[in-house]
Description:
The protein has one domain (35-42, 53-188). 68% of the residues lie in helices and 0% in strands. Helix 1 (2-39) runs antiparallel to helix 6 and helix 3 crosses helix 5. With 204 residues, it is an all-alpha fold. It has helices at 2-39, 54-76, 82-106, 110-132, 151-158, 165-185. It is elongated, with a radius of gyration of 21 Å. The longest helix is centred in the N-terminal third of the chain and has 38 residues, at 2-39.
Amino acid sequence: MEVKKLKTLALSLLKKWWSSLLIFPFLIYSLHQIYWALRYNIFFAVNYDYPFPLNIVYIFVDNFLLIVHEAGHTFFGLFGLRFITILGGSLFQIILPLIIFAYYWFNRKKRGMQFSLVLLGFSWLDVAGYAADGGARQLPLIGGLGKESHDWYNLLTQINILEHDLTFALCFVALGTICYLWALVIPLFPKQPAEVSIDLNLDT
């Protein structure tokens, strides 16, 4: 009887927490990536070895966010303001995962909320690496663009706070970590009761 109870408990816990267990290794490796990038060498932000199969997930997520980033420049460029156009890449990287999260939040889909929070958290870390490189401008830019095209160099220079590039990066890492922690504990949130409409005919 005790074995049966333990088995039932184990299955119940696995059913509740499987998604958190699934995303946990990716979260750890991506946090380790940005730690090494900010602590030792900024090139770890773009050149970091994820083990199989996490490397496949990383390639997919990183390339997806790169497309989103470039689309952000184009979209926000419609406003005709240089600062907003430059900021648009990093900004859209955050806005799109946030919209995806909001969709799952309002539709009460816990798994979708978890995975969208992972995307949002990773995006914050990605932007953190870019921001930290604002002063040094060591990271290679897409299309072989020169150092003068570095987004965060231009953003921080325009508002005269280039020396605070690492401060911005650390703030972004903190936000990304919060998203990761939130993603992990979502199974603890109680289920929302389903709304049921009952039409009782009491005239009979």
